[in-house]
Amino acid sequence: MIQLQRLEGFYRVARAEGYARAVSSFPYPITQPGIHQQVKRLEAEVGVALFERVGKDRVVLTPEGRALYSHVAPFLEGLDAVVQSLREGEVGGTLRIHASGHVLRHLLPAWLRKLQAKRPDIEVVLFESKTPAMDILASGDTDLVVDHLPDVPDTVDAREVAHTRPFLVLPSNHPQAQRKQVRLSELRDDAFIAYSTDRHLRELQLAELARAGVRPKRLHAADSSETILGFVAAGLGYSLLASLLPHGPREAGVVARPLPGAPVGAVHAAWRKMAARSPLIQAALALAPRP
Predict the structure, then answer these.
(1) pTM (2 decimals)?
(2) In terms of Cα–Cα distance, which of 150, 121, 111, 104 is closest to 270?
(3) Both 257 and 169 in a single domain?
(4) pLDDT means per 10 residues in the chain (291 residues)?
(5) Cα–Cα distance between 80 and 130 in angstroms, integer?
(6) What does the alpha-carbon distance between residue 156 and residue 185 come to, in Å, rounded to a whole number?
(7) What are the counts of helices (DSSP H) followed by strands (DSSP E) for the chain?
(8) Shared domain check, 170 and 254
């Protein structure tokens, strides 16, 4: 393994084209014999001469030296800037985000456009998840989860980034669709479309029906709000959905009506406490929407 200190000595001699001139370029005290010793040890390690003496105080790179210099120089020349960016938290890289389909479509686009405009050095990779991806977050395979969070583990921090409001969604050709307000009790004979994958959302739907005294005679199941809307548009039944949109879900063939009395929900951004100082996470959170 070649020592970085020897590569630094080689780099500075190459730039100065001499050992004596290289001394003053070091950020720490070193003698001319010390630099010469670094280069000689490096040449012994790689097995070739790296410099050719062309004058009393001047050396130039051999072809082998030029080949090594082309690899070493960009690293050492960029090192100070990287260290400075580390200290200031201006570190680029890949930020992985898992979110529900609804969040991906209606919350993240504006948020991530701001992040890309301010930090083009951050590449965002998005993943759609049918249920909150807390297990993926815990394993370190994602950086942020943006979703409704029924439970937040002790190892996770979270910030509220949006509110959702509950809506009743009906087929546009339903007899009740033209009314501004529809009572759930008036739909007790209709089929209900519930979440299948996300048990927490399914329980919230059924709890709201129970509060209205409704127990559906027929249930259909779908694994996302988009699929539920497709079922409703097809006339298979009605459903209850939380939406980030102020007037509720928008879908051809579907009518959305506010659900008075139902609780307002929340969307959180969550990250591992151990990763809280990540400059990528901090950059994203600095531009996160505030409900």
Answers:
(1) 0.73
(2) 150
(3) yes
(4) 86 92 88 92 93 89 94 87 72 91 96 95 94 95 95 94 96 91 90 93 93 92 94 96 94 92 90 91 94 84
(5) 43
(6) 40
(7) 10, 11
(8) yes
